Structures are given as structure tokens and as C-alpha cells.
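Q: Start with the shorter request: fold the first protein.
A: Done. Sequence, then structure:
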Amino acid sequence: MKKTIVILAVVGMVGCSSMAELRSGKPEATFYSNKNIDEVSECILSGWQENSVRYGDVFIQPYKGGKTVYTPNSTEVSDVVNVDGKTQISFYHQSGIFSYRINSRLDAIKRCI
């Protein structure tokens, strides 16, 4: 029984990435907006929360003078920061996520820019 629990725990952790690991790679998508960081990040948070029942909770936290909108276990992460006077949105996600879920997140971001 103990071996089964250990194996399940290891398998469950294989697909998980930290925010730092996701950010070390190239973003899935990058967008720019003339809107301010708070407006864009709150809009993304709200858009992602529309699917909370389906995909789980969504959170927001400060990040390098901007904001990060993210889901538990950093399944999806959007960094919203200022770059050269524009608001830049960088979207990352873990591998193995269904494309319809990724597209749902990207559609919410596009509505906010």
C-alpha cells in the first residue's frame, strides 16, 4: 500500500512545473496593450475565473513591478509587466494541457488587451 501511494505521488508531481521553470522557457504567447497593468491583470483574472468551475481557482500576485495571474500548481501563468511604456502579457503553461483549455485562457487575455 505504501509503495502505491509513493508511486502515485511521484507520478502526480511529474507534470508540475514551478513558475520559475515555466518562465525559464519561451512564453506560449506574448501580447501588448496600451492599458495599464492593473486593468489588464484584473481583466485576465476575471476572465480566467469565469472557468473556475471547470479548471479550478485563479490567483493574482505582485511580480517585478507588475502582476502575475496564475492557477494552482502554476498550470497556467500570465505575467503582466511594463516594457518600454507598454503593458506586456507573457502567457506560459505546463505541457500536456488540452488545447481547448489553453485557447480558453488565450481568448480571455485577448479580450483584455
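Q: Next, the second protein, separately.
A: Sequence, then structure:
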Amino acid sequence: MRAFPVVVLSTVGLLLLAACGSSEPSSLAETEEVVAQLREVFIGRASLSDDAINQAAIQGILDFLDDPYTSYLEAGRYTDFTDSLSGTGATFEGIGAEVSIRDSQVMIVGPLPGSPAIKAGVEPGDIVLAVDGEPTEGLDLLEAVVLIRGPKDSTVVLTILRAGSLRPLDIPVVRDTIELTSVLARMQQDDVGYVRLNAFDAVTVSGMIQAVADLRETGAKGLILDLRNNTGGLVEAAVGVVSEFVTEGLVCTGCNPGAEEDLHRVSGTGSAHDLPLVVLVNGFSASASEIVAGALQDHRRAAVIGTTTFGKGSVNLLLPLETGSGLYVTVARWFTPEGQVIEGNGITPDIVVGANGNVQSAQRLGALTQPLCVAFDEERDKLDGLDYFVDALDGLCTLEATTSDEPSSDQQLDRALSEINKLID
């Protein structure tokens, strides 16, 4: 009766304890004793199956860790997720949007340009409350990704809460094959080149180097590097991007408890060390984007323009378990060359252009208010004699989301042009 919980907890526990360099067998023995006592006397002991205890033990440990990126995938979902990552990596099937966890909620971070998500009206910052009617509350990151992804031509309905709205909105999205184009380049003015990085993948560095060379040949005397809505990717790609513009020194430092510092330095082989540069970021620039922006900022190589970045500075591994399940685990944190902590803080721009953080604040307040309005709908008929209370809630919960007209120009890009022209002159 006691053997199974010990095996489960010791397997998971040893994995975690090994990272800290210590073990506490007496604590695990106490856990075993608690389970045994519950199975002996608890009124609901019939529900304490081996599988239930296994899942509860794993979930309890993950909840204790309080890390939004460390999560568990049961066997079926782990297989679905790994299958979706198979192939060349140049394409995948889904809606074409990066998601993350912010304040325990599933958030759309970066809809890809031209993707089904963009065409359907999904926006950065949208909170996904449900997927095909299945609530996302309590889901971890990988579970949410598995739900949203799916085969081409299938439709998924996202129930989203948008900043400035108190009512959910159902958005059907027809999945498609998503082609990943990580580098887009053009001449922005006669002597100013523009390079947008949509991701940091295996071909980003080579694509960017070629783009910079082509732009210089066309006459570019300065460059705008746009990292807005770029949710990251490979740290090696981030190192390669920084190496194109910085001659020597650190790109970032990884901190892994119990291990030596993981130092990433520029390669010294870049071709644009002398090219005037500015960088654009926003609240949905994350991970590798933040590494690049932070490194260029710390090296005084480029002015960073926009709004404070997302604040995702962790390193994660997807580990298979013997049961066929998987564990997605945070193994390190990234720091900028001068020691700025990226995780939870983001990179603060040198020049702030735009509302810094208003989307996240509105999302947080909207998320708190939305269940109040749902409860108000359900209980409204029982509030006789409380007219003032009903009027107040009615005024709050019937507010329609308002959106301003799209600006005639990109204010952040305009400021970047102004700054790069100063450097060129």
C-alpha cells in the first residue's frame, strides 16, 4: 500500500533535490506516512488511487515551485506536443501565435505577421480564457500550446479577454501551415536600413547578416533593428546577432544553481561593428530579444527605443519521463553583461516611446473584474432593494471596449528614424 507513493515522490524529489545538492529522506518518509494514514482512515480514501496520488504529488511540487515555465505534460499531451515539433522546424501547423504565462493566465504574446491569428483579429496581450470551450485556468504553458495547436484547416475557438474590455470575446481561428520567416529587411529611407527579426531560429543569424550586407550595398549608413513582438528562440542566435554589431565582450550570463556561470561571448567575426544602430522593443519582446537588447544597451552600442520588454529571462528544457510523460523545467536564468536581471523585470528602454505597461495593467484589472461581472449576471435577479449596488455593477459590466483609431504613423519607428539620423549626421 505504501510502495507506490514512495517511488513516485522519490523519483520526482530526487530530480529536484539533485539540483540543489542535498537530500532529505526523512521528509519523503513523512510524506509516505501521510499517504498511508489517509488511505487508512480518510473518509474519501476510495479516491486515493495510485494515479490520483501520483498526479497530486507532481502538481503539488510544481505549484510549490511557483515557476510559470516549469510544467508537466501527461503522456498523451507530451506526445502531441513533441509530434508538433517534428520535421524541419521551418513550418508547423497551428494559428501562428506565441503564447506565454503571465499572472497565471495564458497570454498571446506574438502573433506572427500574416498568420491565421492576425487574420482572425487576435492581438498581442489577449488573455486566452478558454480553447474550444475548455477553460485554460490551471493549465501550464505546454498544456495550453497543445490545446491551441492543431492540424491545418481545422478551426479552434479562442475565448479571449482584451485590454479595456470586461466581457470575453470568442474568436474562431482556422489553423494553417505556418511558414517561419525570421528576417524581414528593407530600406526605410535613402540612407537608413530596417531589419525586423520575428524569431531567433537556426537561420536568423545568416539571414540577418545577408540582409545587413544587402542594405549597406544599397546605401544604408545606419540601421534600425526591430525586435517588437519577437518572443525569442535560440540563445545561440541571440549571440550571433549581437556578434554582428559588438566587437568583444559578453552577450549574457547564465546562472544555474550548483554549476559554474555559463558565459556567452561575442564571436568577434561581425561585419557591422561600425554601423550606427538603434533597437526597437515593446512589452512583447521576450527571451532572446531581451538578451540582444540588453547586451547592445550595456555595451552602449545602440539606443533601445520603445517600452519595457516582457521579462522572460529563463532557460528551459523539455525532459522525457520513463512513463512517456514530459517535464518542461527551468534550469537557469539569463543576465545582461552588466548584471541586469531579465526575468520578471524586462529591459527598460533608453528612450521610452508608447504607453509603458498599460496593456498588462488593463489585462490584470480586466481579468479580476470579469468573474465579478459573470457572477453579477447570475445573481442580478436576487438583488432586490439594492438599486444603487445594481446600478454601479451594471455601469461597470456593460462598458464596451473602446479602441482608438490606428495612428497614421508608427511613433516608435518615427523616433528610431530621428535617432539614427542624428548618428548618421
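Q: Describe the second briefly.
A: The longest strand covers residues 326-335. Confidence is low (pLDDT under 50) at residues 1-24, 403-408.
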